[in-house]
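Private note to self, pasted from the team thread so I don't lose it. Backbone tokens:
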């Protein structure tokens, strides 16, 4: 079997109600999608932070055996291709392999430890409301009513906003719901420590990306100063970017994104480094139905860490923000039921792409 064509799609979803994290307002959501075709008639789909340039595709992908994932990965990387773009090709190759073998990707990754995953609702962004606190409280209560037992909200907007709104959301959802916060690199070290000490009073599951993604020393300093789990690394690309962060245990939880770090092939190496350094992995997920399916296969294949009788939950980031490329791109959408999400069991990614939806936004 050989690869005969690669089609790339730069898809953009225009957001109807803009929302903000600590760094920027989101008014549209761009995604890189690839379709890899083979001479056997099998097609694979992938998603990345970008799509690879045509010259790299022609030099390193066309004519290759799709089972040669390492060869393709290294060839693209040698040409200077961004791992975030390699991700799209790599995921598509794994989709092809699964379809060719009639197996879901989680089986190719070594098997599934679980067939469904507990999800945490990612939402609670800053929006242009007359009463932001009331809006956040209503949204958080809505997630609880839907059956979510965990959620994550955005912080990083300064102590007045963060402390008031985290306290309000915690009161609204009660003590039994897991609550994480994400600053999206919006603070410096000192501010992150000062605000983190007060946020920790609200029984937080973790404090995500308090500072710049590559500040290894800063993460270690914050982790030592706070009695709170620190997470991050969703933006890092390739195993080399993760090496010091994991070896120095600057994080309690590493959050590689399969569509940014380099696809399944690279994610496995990062996960092995994390395991060797006793750092938990909870993948980042904020993309289309392709990224959601890929992340579920990874979560199915990750063992409990640690191997306890009552292990720390394996959690799926379930994006609740507006995005038709997540909700409508798969002909049978992946949905949560009471805060739990089933791992796709069809071959490859286990989803079929609705080409009309793709063409609408591409």
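Design output:
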């Amino acid at each position: 079997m050989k690869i005969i064509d690669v089609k790339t799609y730069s898809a953009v979803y225009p957001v109807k109600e803009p929302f903000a994290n600590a760094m920027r307002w989101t008014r549209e959501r761009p995604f890189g999608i690839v379709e890899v075709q083979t001479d056997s008639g099998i097609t694979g789909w992938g998603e990345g932070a970008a799509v690879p340039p045509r010259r790299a595709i022609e030099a390193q992908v066309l004519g290759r055996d799709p089972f040669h994932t390492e060869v393709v990965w290294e060839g693209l990387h040698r040409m200077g291709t961004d791992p975030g773009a390699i991700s799209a090709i790599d995921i598509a190759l794994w989709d092809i392999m699964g379809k060719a073998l009639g197996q879901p990707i989680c089986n190719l990754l070594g098997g599934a430890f679980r067939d469904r995953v507990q999800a945490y609702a990612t939402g609670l962004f800053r929006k242009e409301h007359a009463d932001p606190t009331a809006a956040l409280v209503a949204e958080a209560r809505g997630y609880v009513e839907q059956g979510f037992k965990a959620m994550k909200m955005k912080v990083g907007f300064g102590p007045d906003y963060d402390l008031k709104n985290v306290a309000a959301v915690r009161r609204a959802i009660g003590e039994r719901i897991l609550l994480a916060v994400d600053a999206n690199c919006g603070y410096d070290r000192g501010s992150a420590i000062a605000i983190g000490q007060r946020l920790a009073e609200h029984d937080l599951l973790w404090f995500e990306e308090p500072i710049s993604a590559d500040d290894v020393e800063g993460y270690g300093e914050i982790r030592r100063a706070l009695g709170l789990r620190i997470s991050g690394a969703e933006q890092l690309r390739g195993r080399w970017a993760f090496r010091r962060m994991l070896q120095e245990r600057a994080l309690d939880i590493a959050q590689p994104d399969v569509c940014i770090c380099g696809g399944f092939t690279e994610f496995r190496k990062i996960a092995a480094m994390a395991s060797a350094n006793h750092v938990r992995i909870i993948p980042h997920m904020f993309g289309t139905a392709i990224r959601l399916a890929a992340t579920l296969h990874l979560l199915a294949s990750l063992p409990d860490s640690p191997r306890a009788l009552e292990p720390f939950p394996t959690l799926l980031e379930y994006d609740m923000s507006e995005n038709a490329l997540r909700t409508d791109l798969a002909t049978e959408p992946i949905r949560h039921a009471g805060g739990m999400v089933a791992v796709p069991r069809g071959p490859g990614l286990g989803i079929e792409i609705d080409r009309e939806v793709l063409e609408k936004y591409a």
